[in-house]
Amino acid sequence: MKKFRLFCVCLLVVGFCFLRTFGLARSYDGLCSAILHPWGYPCLEYTVTTDDGFILGVQRIPHGRVENVIESRRPVFLQHGLFQGGDTWFENFPDQSLGFILADAGFDVWVGNVRGTRWSHGHVSLPRGAKEFWDWSFDELAEKDLPAMLELIYNLTQSQIYYVGHSQGTIMAFAAFTNAKVIKRMAAAALLSPIAFLSNITSPFARAAVNLHLDQVAKGMGVHQLNLRSEFAVEMVDRVCKSKQVNCGDLLTSITGPNCCFNNSRIPYYLDFEPHPSSTKNLEHLFQMIRKGTFTKFDWGWFGNWRHYASSTPPEYDLLSIPKEFPVLMAYGGLDAMADLNDVALMLTKVLCKVELLYLENYAHLDFVLSVKAKGDLYDPLIAFFKAQSKLGFQV
Ligand SMILES: *[C@@H]1O[C@H](CO)[C@@H](O)[C@H](O)[C@H]1NC(C)=O
Ligand SMILES: *[C@@H]1O[C@H](CO)[C@@H](O)[C@H](O)[C@H]1NC(C)=O
Ligand SMILES: CC(=O)N[C@H]1CO[C@H](CO)[C@@H](O)[C@@H]1O
Question: Residue ranges of the domains in the chain?
Answer without folding.
Answer: 2-392
